Amino acid sequence: MQKRKIFENVYWLGSVDWDRRLFDSLIPLPDGTTYNAYLVQGSQKTALLDTVDPPMTDELLAQLSDVRAIDFIVSQHAEQDHSGAIPQVLERFPEAKVVVSPKAKGMLMDLLRIPETAFVTVSDGETISLGDKTLKFLHTPWVHWPETMVTYLTEDKMLFSCDFLGSHIASSDLFVTDQGRVYEAAKRYFAEIMMPFRKVIEKNIEKLKEYDVQMIAPSHGQIYDRPAWIMDAYKDWVMGVPHNLVALPFVSMHGSTRQLVDYLASCLVEQGVRVELFNLAAADIGKLAMALVDAATIVVGVPTVLAGPHPLAAYATLLANALRPKTKFLSIVGSYGWGGKTVETLAGMIPNLNVEVLDPVLCKGVPAKNDFESLDKLAGMIAQKHKEHGFR
Asked: Do 222 and 175 form a contact (C-beta atoms < 8 A)?
C-alpha cells in the first residue's frame, strides 16, 4: 500500500497485515492488525514516527522511496513490531537520529544493536522543531512497557499514541468508519495488553487532559478523527466500577462440572445478574479477557485432575491474575472423584487480585440435591453483593 495523506505534510505509512492471527505467540488476532508509522515533513526537517514489524520492512522502505531525507526517527516504543525496521531505515538515511526516551535507548541497543551514537534522548515534555511543525514528547510509562512515550504534533493538534489507544484490526480504512467494530477490537486490545497497567494508565490519561487532541493516530488500527469516544471508553475501562456481570470460564471432563456451571448461570440470570460462559476447551481467550474488563465476579468451573485443577482452568486463573482486572469477587465450582487440593491450588494462583473469595461449591461425582442448594446460595450471595455495591 502507498503512503496516505492525513494532513498537509503528514502521512500514514506502514502495512496492513490481513493474515496474522496470533500476536506474541499468545494473543489471538481474529481481525488481523496494522503496523502504523507516520511521516511528518516540516519546512526545515522531517521525522518518521515508529516503523513496522520486521517482515514488513520492504513495504515501508518502498513508501519512503521518494523521501529525500529523514532527520529524526522517533521510536515511541522499543517492541519490535514498532521498532524492528529502524536499522534498515538508518541504512537508507544514515544521518538520521533516533529520538527516544532515556529508558528506550538501552533497550533498543539490546534488542536491535543500534549504536549508541545514533540516539538522541528526550525528556518528558521536551520538543523538537521541524520548522513549521513541532513535536512534543510525553513520557507514558507502562503503556505498556516502561520506556513508552507519545508524541503531540502541536500545530495539527494530533496525538501519535503508539500502542496506547490502539486496536488490532486490519482494514483499508485510514480513519475509523465502523465505530462498533473498532470499539470491540480496541476493548480486546486493552484487555489483552493494557489492563494490567490500569493504575499507571489512569495517570497518563490525566496527563493528556491539558492538550487539545483533535485526532489520535495509534500504531495499530485506524486513526481516530473523532477521538472523544475512545478516550471515554478508556476512562470507563480504567477507572469505571465493575458491571453486574459474572465471567464464568470452565472446563468439564465428564459433564459433572458442566451441570454445576449451567445451573449456577441459570440461578444468576433469574436474580438479575448477567453471565458470560467460556468453555475453555474451545474459548477465545481474548473474549474472556474482554469480559474480565467489566466483570464484578469471576467463577471458575473446574474438575479435579490428579488431585489438582484441570490445566485449562489453571491457565485461565493465571491469566486473570496476570491481567489484574477490577473484579471484586471470586469463587470456584467443580467436581472431583476421590479428593484433591483444587481450591487451595487455584487460590494460590491469584496473589495479584484484590478479591473477596466466596465459598466454593465442589461435588463428589455427579451433583446431588445439596450441591444444587449450595449453588442457589452462591448465586444469591453474588446477586446481593452486586446490589450492595451498586453494580449495573
From this structure: yes
**Same domain, yes or no: 55 and 194:** yes
C-alpha to C-alpha distance for 228 and 95, rounded to whole angstroms: 38
Give the per-residue pLDDT at 1.
Answer: 85
CATH number at residue 363: 3.40.50.360
What contacts 91, CB < 8 A, 6 or more positions away? none
Q: Is residue 391 part of a domain?
A: no
Residue 375: domain span: 243-383
Are both 167 and 24 inside the same structural domain? yes
Name which of 180, 170, 239, 172 is nearest 204 in CA terms: 239
Q: Which of 14, 173, 19 is nearest to 84 (CA)?
A: 14
- Residue 55 within any structural domain of the chain: yes
**CA 356 – CA 381 distance, rounded (Å):** 12
The string of pLDDT tens digits covering residues 204-218 is 999 999 999 999 999
Task: Report the Cα–Cα distance between both ends of the chain, in Å, rounded.
Answer: 45
Report CA-CA distances (Å) from 68 to 1, 6, 96, 335. 20, 20, 12, 68
Cβ atoms 168, 185 nearer than 8 A: yes
- With beta carbons less than 8 A apart as the criterion, state whether 147 and 203 touch: no
Query: What 8-state DSSP symbol labels residue 371?
Result: H
pLDDT tens string 259-318: 999 999 999 999 999 999 999 999 899 999 999 999 999 999 999 999 899 999 999 999
DSSP 207-225: HHTTS--SEEEESSS-BBS
Q: CA distances (Å), 344 to each of 336, 350, 365, in order?
A: 14, 11, 19
Tell the residue number behind the cell numbers 522499543, with chain if given. 78
Residue 378, phi then psi, degrees to nearest 5: -65, -45
In a domain, 390, yes or no: no
Length in residues, the chain: 392
| CA-CA-CA-CA torsion sign (174, 175, 178, 182) | positive
- The set of cell numbers assigned to 162 is 503508539
Compute the distance between CA of residue 361 and CA of residue 243 in angstroms, rounded to an integer: 23
Place of cell 503531540: 152
pTM, two decimals, is: 0.93
- Assign residue 56 the CATH number of its domain: 3.60.15.10
